[in-house]
Design brief:
Layout lengths: L2 H25 L11 E10 L6 H9 L3 E8 L6 H6 L4 E5 L9 H12 L4 E5 L3 E3 L3 H11 L4 E5 L1 E2 L4 H4 L4 H9 L2 H5 L13 E5 H6 L12 H11 L4 E5 L4 E3 L5 H15 L4 H21 L7 H17 L13 H4 L1 H7 L3 E4 L2 E4 L3
């Protein structure tokens, strides 16, 4: 493919993405807080491994949701997580059992929480997720309004450093640029589904029917695998944007974001390193190359503008500053260390190592 052909391919790619983004901007559900709802049969379940810094910021808000119970599982933390959680009124702390063979840490923690929960609705959430007043009630109501008994929130991502701004928005980019919401919402294929482990709600009957977290015990990207199991068994999967009602600071700084995304990136590409390398190269061609060539050739100014516009639509949809779209040419470059880390066969996260790839 020559330079002209590449430019045309990039332009077509970006136009297609903008079209998908605009559909999602118009149709993707946004979470709304609700009050005065009986949540006695809802269990809010929090896996926690070395989360002593996050829990004082997030757990009081969870405890104030008015749910039947809030359970925190201390997964062999070394930083006093259990004591911090126990100091919050209305929270019950569980001690995690040793990790069995064949399980990865988070799935095992979630499995133990579900086994201990009493509620008909199980709401799983990460320890760094902020739930504003009425958020859980709004979440359950939204899932039911979509005719589902399983659903997931994509929280609004709080980013405070340049490293976070250059990496964390990839979550929104993948969600809002891959498929239009009407297809994600339709019963098209078990693979046309998305889930976010930061916030998942599932009715106990559906949870038991699909085999719980044991069905995805060894999966690195356990949340998406869980959603695919639900869809495979004929269950609607409701999706909703956090809309500031549920939000999180997922990583603190570029190094932590690189490690966090790096552990999952290869799995997201089917374990194929060649596919990962090709994806990185293509995104560099689509977003970075136009910025490098626009000064030499007017023809490249259009794809440069389209790349920035595309990111601006995603930012506006997810309540992020549209000005961050100006960083679009830098994002593929910031992703290079993430991709390099993802190429490793052994990944480490929160003190545990596991094998990835083929």
């Amino acid at each position: 493919m020559g330079v002209t052909g590449l430019r045309r391919a990039v332009t077509a790619f970006l136009l297609a993405r903008i079209a998908v983004n605009l559909v999602n901007w118009r149709t993707f559900p946004r979470l709304r807080a609700r009050k005065g709802v009986d949540l006695d049969r809802v269990s809010l379940l929090v896996p926690a491994r070395d989360e002593a810094a996050n829990l004082p910021l997030t757990l009081p808000g969870m405890a104030a949701q008015g749910v039947g119970e809030v359970l925190v599982l201390d997964d062999h933390s070394q930083d006093g997580t259990a004591d911090v959680a126990a100091a919050v009124d209305g929270v019950k702390v569980l001690t995690g059992a040793p990790l069995p063979d064949g399980w990865l840490g988070k799935a095992w923690a979630l499995q133990q929480l579900a086994a201990a929960a009493r509620g008909d609705w199980l709401v799983f959430t990460d320890a760094d997720v902020h739930w504003e007043p009425g958020a859980v009630a709004g979440f359950v109501a939204e899932v039911e309004a979509q005719g589902a008994r399983v659903g997931s929130i994509f929280p609004t991502q709080d980013t405070r450093t340049w490293g976070e701004r250059l990496t964390v928005p990839v979550i929104d980019e993948v969600l809002l640029s891959g498929l239009p919401y009407p297809i994600l919402h339709a019963d098209v294929s078990p693979h046309a589904v998305s889930m976010n482990g930061q916030a998942i709600a599932i009715h106990r009957e559906v949870y038991d029917a699909i085999g719980g977290w044991a069905a995805v015990a060894g999966r690195i990207v356990e949340d998406v695998a869980f959603g695919r199991l639900a869809r495979r068994d004929g269950h609607e999967v409701a999706l909703v944007l956090g809309n500031g009602v549920v939000h999180t600071r997922m990583y603190r700084g570029y190094a932590e974001a690189t490690a966090g995304f790096g552990k999952n990136l290869l799995t997201a590409h089917g374990g194929r390193r060649v596919l990962l390398a090709a994806d990185v190269a293509w995104h560099a061609a689509a977003y970075t190359l136009p910025a490098l060539l626009a000064g030499r050739s007017r023809a490249w100014r259009l794809p440069l503008a389209l790349g920035i516009a595309q990111r601006a639509v995603v930012a506006a949809t997810t309540r992020r500053a549209p000005a961050e779209a100006l960083l679009a040419p830098l994002l593929p470059l910031a992703g290079l260390p993430v991709a390099a880390r993802a190429m490793r066969r052994t990944q480490t996260w929160k003190g545990r190592s596991f094998e990835v790839g083929r």
